[in-house]
Structures are given as C-alpha cells and as structure tokens.
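Dear Dr. L.,

I hope this message finds you well. Following up on our conversation about the binding site, I have prepared a predicted three-dimensional model of the protein together with PBG. For your records, I am including the exact sequence and ligand specification that went into the calculation, followed by the structure tokens. Please feel free to forward this to your student if that is useful.
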Amino acid sequence: MIVGRFPSYRPRRNRYDNATRRLVAENTLHIDNLIWPIFFTEGTKTTTDVASMPGVRRVTLDLLASHVEPAARLGIPALALFPVTPTHKRDEHGTEATNPDNLMCRAARLLKQEFPDMALIGDVALDPYTQHGHDGLVENGYVVNDASVTILSQQAIHQAQAGIDIIAPSDMMDGRIGLIRKALDSHTLINTRIMSYAVKYASAFYGPFRDALGSNSFLKGNKKTYQMDPANSREALREVAMDIEEGADMVMVKPGMPYLDIIWRVHDTFGVPTFGYQVSGEYAMLSAAINNGWLAREQAIIESLLSFRRAGAHGVLTYFALEAATILRKRQGL
Ligand code: PBG
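The resulting structure of the complex is given below.
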C-alpha cells in the first residue's frame, strides 16, 4: 500500500521539473522497443503511397536497402516484412507462399546481407498469396485448419532458410505453432525464433493494411471463423497458454491500443516476452488527426507507444517506428 497525506505529501512535487519527472518515470520507451513493419513489391525504381496510411510507402526490391537504411542507422532492432504479391501470382491455394524464391524470401536474403544485425520478422499466413484473401485454404467457403497448417509450416521453413530470424504466424489456425516448431527443428533451424500472433482479433482496424497489400479487393467475407471475437478476453489467455506450450518464444496481441487490457492480462499472467501491434487502422486514425492539426504530432506518437509499455508490452510493431526513433534520439540530444 502506498500512503501519503496532504500536505506532508504533495504528489505534484515529483512533477515539479523535467529532471525529476524523468527520475520517477515508471515506464520508458526506448528504440529497442520498436519494430518497423515494411511493405515491398516486385518491379524496379518505384515507390507507391498507401492512401489510407499517409507516410507509409511500398517500395520495389531494388529500393529496399535504401528504404531500410535509416532504421538501421537509428538502431531499430527489428523489421516486420510484408510482401505485396502481384495479382497474377495469387491463386486459390496460395502456391506462391511456398516458393523459395518468392518476394519475401528474396527480400530476406537481401536484407540479411545488407543489415546482418537487424532481426527480420516474417509474416506467416497465406493472405498475400491467395485470390480469396484468406490466411488459409478455403474449402466450400470455410477456411480449413489442418491442411492450412501444413502449408504454413513449409512457408515458415522457406522463410527461415532465406534468413528470416523470427517466424511470426499471423494466420490464427489452431496448432500451427507446434507444427511450425517441429518443422523448423527437423530442418535444423533450432534457433529460429517464433513470435506468435497468439491473440489476433477479427478487427476493423486492419482495413488500411489490406489496402497496402491490395487484398481488400480480394477478400471474400470476413475472418471471424479464425480470428478472435473482440468480445473475449479469457479466451485470449487460453490462446497464449497453448502457444507457449507449443513452443512460442514471444507472443503478440493485435490490434494494440483498443486491446491494452489484453496485453496487460497476458503479460501479467505469463510473464513471457509480449508484443503489441499498433495496427494500420490505429496509424490511420492518429495520422488523420495529426495531419488535420487536431493532435500534436510528436506527443501523440510517443504517448500512444508509451501506453503499450505501461500495459506490459516489451515492444511495439508500429508504422511510426522511424519517426518515434527520431524523436527519442532528439530528446536524448543524440
Ligand atoms: C494477415 C495480417 C494482417 C495484418 C498483419 N498480418 C491483416 C489481416 O489479418 O487481415 C494487419 C496489420 C495491420 O493492420 O497493420 N495475415
């Protein structure tokens, strides 16, 4: 119990000046807490904007290294890779996902060579590769589980062999962490880490991301038969427990800001490395308000990210990563 009585205790005293506020801060945001999600595509010398995510761009592979260079320079520890697969390479079964020379694998090889110290996080799911835009295989209008997991395991192996350090299954199929772990181990990829999107909700906040990937126009129906119901929180703990048991090294909660209670419960309950994803819709909301002059840019960005840390997140996947890192450096006088 914390006790204190006015006027011997005045809470405002510890807020008196900046130095004191820094000394008593309970949580901090550091560049080490930032993961930058990036989009890339086939072709050459082309950068395209994502209309619903102002400031976010898709770049062709030849521009990827220069796109990533500022992140490396700022000391951002990890990138989350999202390939924008050309329409003609999408099919019913997401075949391109298991092509060892697909866009993702080529990007991984390139980035690993250019930036060996940066951790590469590979999204494992079929949605960038399927015509229907679902994360797994569809049979009679239903996303089937076990057959999807078999393909996802192969996808994970190819990614790891291409240089992805951290496999991040975002598909929400049951049992995939265990099978992916087994598949990696049997290919001597025992040190490839798994960051499970353990708690991923069927959320409206992914809309702009699907614009970025071009999958909005493809997606048939919704993802409610595999992503979690936003009404549930106890179920989230069960999902996390299963994934830890199956071999997840880190877990993620997604979206972030509307689900900080879940981050808190997960971290409080299991104490494993827990990450939050400030998803595209959160970025879009903040950017819209900031760009309208309705929110103070730097303060809103840092405050929103600090909220993840307060909730117990070790790190945050955020499209603001570069900007946040720049702000943090500036504040430290670097
Ligand atoms: C799909 C995937 C999604 C995101 C990351 N991986 C979208 C979805 O499930 O439809 C969303 C990220 C964001 O909105 O920023 N495997």
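In brief: The pocket of PBG is lined by residues 123, 125, 127, 135, 170, 206, 209-210, 223, 279-280 (CB under 6 Å).

With kind regards,
A. P.
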